[in-house]
Structure formats: C-alpha cells, structure tokens
From TrEMBL:
Pathway field: Cofactor biosynthesis; molybdopterin biosynthesis
Protein name: Molybdopterin molybdenumtransferase
Record has Disulfide bond as a keyword: no
Cofactor(s) of this protein: Mg(2+)
Gene Ontology process terms (BP): Mo-molybdopterin cofactor biosynthetic process
Keywords: Magnesium, Metal-binding, Molybdenum, Molybdenum cofactor biosynthesis, Transferase
Natural source organism: Streptomyces azureus
Enzyme Commission number(s) from the entry: 2.10.1.1
Species classification: Bacteria, Bacillati, Actinomycetota, Actinomycetes, Kitasatosporales
Function summary: Catalyzes the insertion of molybdate into adenylated molybdopterin with the concomitant release of AMP.
Length: 456
C-alpha cells in the first residue's frame, strides 16, 4: 500500500493536478491572462461556448501566446491522483510526497567484506559467518570476530568491521589488523540515509529510474502520482493507405505511425488510433463518443470541401481556444475545449505541420495535464542564416553540432526528411536569423536525454 503523505493538513489524495503543477512550476505565472479569464466569464455568464465566426479565423494567435494558452487550458481540469505500481510509474509526477516507510539502512550494515570484530586485537574467529539476508546473529564478546559480507547485519556489540585486505591470521588462527581499527569503521548505522517518515521527495517530483529505485528501497510497491493523460488519435483522410507504396493518387499515412510514440514521449497514454473517413457524421460520432482527455485529429483543419473539423466543433458547441497560429508550417492548427474535461488538438494534415502542432499545442497541454515541469528554454547560435516569414514564427529542423544549431533542408510542410534527421526545432522569429544569431530551440523528445526518451 502507498501511504498518503500530508501537506499542511491536506490529504494528498485531495491534491489535484492544478495544485501539483503549482508546486512543480511555482516560478511560472500560470494563472494566465486573457484566454482563461475570458473562458471563465463566458461560462459564468451562461453563454453557450461557440467558435468565432468564420471571418474571424484569420486572426491567428501569435506562436508564444498559443503555447501559453495550451499550457493554461487544462489547469481547471481536476484529475484525481492514482496509485500506480512502480513498474508503471516511470515518467509520472508524484502527487504525494515520497516519505520513507522504513529507516535506511533498516539495520546496522557492514559496508565491506571482512570481519566484524569486538574489542582490541587479536580476535578469535568464529567458525560460522554472516551473510547478507541472514537474520540477527549472536552478540560478539570482546576478543571475538566473525566473517561478514557486505550488506550483512552487524552482530550486536561489534566494535568495527575489518576489511578482508586489512586482516591477517597467525598459525593459531587468531586475527590481527594490519592498520589501526577505528570504532565504527565500515559500519553503516541504521537510519544513516533516512529515518522512517522522513520526506525523501516532494509532491511534483518526476518519477525517474532513480526515483523508482529509491521508492523500492524505501519500501514502496506503488506510488501516488498524477495519472497519464489519455489521448485518442483520429486520423482523417480518404487518401491514406496503411501499407504498401503510394499509388493512384493515394499516399501512405505518415501520422498514424508517428503520433502514438510521440504522444507517449510527451506523457500521454494513447488509448486508440482510429481512421475516420472524410465524412462529417463519422467525425462527429468519433469525437462525441471519445472518453479520452485529449482527442488529437490529423488533417481536415483547413477550408477544403472535406475539411470537417471546424464544422464539427461548431456543431458540438466546442470552445475554440486557439484557431490558427502565426507559425509556419502548421498555421491551421487549433485547440478546442470539447467538454468540461476534454480537449481537442487539431493537427494539420501536412506531416511537418502536424509536428509543429504537436510541439505548439499538444506538448504544453499534455504537460499541464501530467503536471510535468516546463523544460527550461534555451538558445544556441545558428550556423547558417535562416529565412524568416514576414509575420509568422517559423519552426525549422536543426541538428546540434558543438554549440551551434545547423539548419536542415527538406523542411517544407509536407516533408519529414529534415525532422527525421533532426535533434531539435529552431524557433525562427519573423524576419529570420543571421549566421551566428541565437535562436530558441525545442528539443525533440528522443534527443533531449530527458525522461521523454522512455517510450513506455
Ligand atoms: N485555401 C487554403 N488552403 C490551404 C491552406 C490555407 O490557408 N488556405 N492552408 C494549407 C496549409 S498551410 C495546410 S498545413 C493544410 C492543412 O490542411 P488540413 O489540415 O485540412 O489537411 P488535409 O487537407 O487533410 O491534408 C493536407 C495534406 O496533408 C496530407 N495528409 C493528411 N493526412 C496525412 C497523413 N496522415 N499522412 C500523410 N499525409 C497526410 C494530405 O494528403 C494533404 O496533402 O492546408 C493547406 N491548404
Ligand atoms: O501549415 Mo502548412 O503546412 O503551413 O504549410
């Protein structure tokens, strides 16, 4: 069982994601300005949630603001902490403090292979020995020694542990030390690392492989954590093939294979990947029957004859939080609140535009739902000049070489060749960057070396 630590009189089980996030990320002002306040006041006034009229859609959101809005969007969503077996907890955020369930070490322990000795040398060595995992041994009396292994319990009344390389026996089998013996040497006293009840890690800590080890050592079988947000992927497009080579105007679905592991790396549990034909009724059915925290659609965000995402969101009365972003590629991306507890991220169909939507909208949204801390922003000089868009931010695949970001070719919206070789995306402001100019970088989950590399 997992204990329920308390914080200032609160039951940890009552902590919701918002509180955990506040603890994880308390230096950021996440209370947020416009978007949230506007949403809340609209709700409070009882007005129906509606998308803006079509003629307002060209008022795309600036890229930094779109990310901030996505990061704030889920803050009001209450998600109850869950008890998770250690083997399933990697990458989650602790929703209760990790308090030691035992002293560590939980008994006086030998730090070395050698002898437990009592009193001054020489010592008569007992016939038996003490191994790790053995129960308590009979007390030693002065002048006695017993062979002992690293990790074994120290017999009562032991003065010190003599390492095997620091002892020699005479012809009568008596043991001598070849250097001074300091009382207590090479004994790890019970409670040296912690006492039962000590807080080992606070609420908000990320469960890393090391945390799993610490939790196990401290007696845990489960930890109390923020659950992984559940994401369902709806792949739209009648032109998509799931196998073989493109033919007769049909193309391979590149997003079906790419999105599930990417979303997992961003902290989501992917519950399903469903292919939805270009039919408004089918899309309506798929969205309204989903029980995922986040529905991710691909394609159908623009204004073509079979682009059904906007009309469907209007039909269900979804609240459009972001409707188009001033970013290239990916400008038709969108974020909507479809129920009190569910969001929809609409990724454009062009594959690199979809990646842009993942990093712009899905990443901050999932991060908030999972109560993960925001990555520290960082910049590097770009080796080469990168053309900018006149008004919009560009996201350009780069490889990191030394302390420089090297822009890659094949960075068009429909291309994956650049991103497949990349370490990061460079954020290129309107107007572009000159050679040697610093640009912000968004690490790709597998290149960052962070917990995200664990595609569990
Ligand atoms: N009149 C306008 N047309 C378009 C605009 C615009 O502003 N005005 N924006 C363009 C941009 S930019 C993008 S990006 C796309 C976004 O289109 P949709 O989200 O509606 O996506 P689709 O039309 O369904 O597909 C676009 C493109 O991507 C291919 N695709 C779709 N899904 C997949 C997939 N799973 N794997 C691989 N490729 C996929 C699809 O076949 C199309 O070629 O709109 C532009 N048009
Ligand atoms: O979003 Mo589109 O793919 O910019 O070019």
């Amino acid at each position: 069982m997992t204990p329920h630590g308390t914080r200032a009189g609160e039951d940890a089980e009552d902590l919701d994601v918002e509180e955990v996030l506040a603890l994880v990320n308390n230096s950021n002002d996440l209370s947020g300005p416009a978007g949230r306040a506007e949403t809340d006041s609209r709700r409070a006034s009882g007005q129906p949630a509606t998308s803006p009229p079509p003629d307002a859609r060209h008022h795309a959101t600036p890229w930094p603001e779109a990310r901030a809005t996505a990061g704030r969007a889920a803050r009001a969503t209450r998600r109850q902490p869950v008890s998770v077996p250690l083997e399933a907890a990697l990458g989650l955020t602790l929703a209760a403090p990790l308090d030691a369930l035992t002293d560590l070490p939980s008994f006086d322990t030998s730090a070395m292979d050698g002898w437990a000795v009592a009193g001054p040398a020489p010592w008569d060595v007992r016939d038996d020995g003490v191994l790790a995992g053995h129960p308590v041994h009979a007390p030693l009396t002065d002048g006695e020694a017993v062979r002992i292994a690293t990790g074994a319990r120290i017999p009562p009344d032991t003065t010190a542990v003599l390492r095997s390389e620091h002892g020699r026996t005479d012809e009568k089998g008596r043991l001598y030390a070849t250097r001074d013996v300091v009382p207590g040497q090479d004994i790890r006293p019970r409670g040296q690392e912690c006492r039962s009840g000590d807080q080992l890690l606070p609420v908000g800590a990320l469960v890393t492989p090391a945390v799993l080890g610490l939790a196990a050592a401290a007696g845990y079988d489960t930890v109390t954590a923020v659950p992984r947000p559940r994401a369902e992927i709806l792949v739209l497009g009648d032109e998509l093939l799931t196998e073989g080579r493109p033919h007769d105007g049909l193309i391979r679905d590149a997003l079906g294979p790419m999105l599930p592991p990417w979303l997992r790396a961003l902290g989501a549990e992917v519950t399903a990947v469903r292919r939805v034909r270009d039919d408004a009724g089918a899309l309506h059915q798929a969205i309204t029957t989903s029980d995922a925290d986040v529905v991710v659609t691909t394609g159908g965000t623009a204004a073509g004859p079979v682009d059904h995402v906007h009309p469907t969101l209007r039909r269900i009365g979804a609240e459009l939080l972001v409707d188009g972003v001033k970013v290239r590629p990916g400008h038709p991306m969108l974020l909507a609140r479809i129920t009190e507890t569910q969001h929809l991220v609409g990724l454009p169909g062009n594959p690199l535009a979809a990646v842009s939507g993942l990093l712009t909208l899905a990443e901050p949204l999932l991060r908030t739902l999972a109560a993960r801390p925001a990555p520290e922003p960082y910049t590097l000089p770009t080796r080469d000049a990168v053309h900018g868009h006149p008004y919009d931010t560009r996201l350009v695949p780069v490889v990191l070489r030394g302390d420089q970001a090297v822009p890659l070719r094949y960075n068009g919206p429909a291309m994956l060749r650049g991103i497949a070789a990349a370490d990061a995306l460079a954020v290129v402001p309107p107007g572009g960057v000159r050679p040697g100019q610093e640009a912000e970088l968004l690490d790709l989950p597998w290149a960052s070396g962070g917990i995200g590399v664990c595609f569990t």
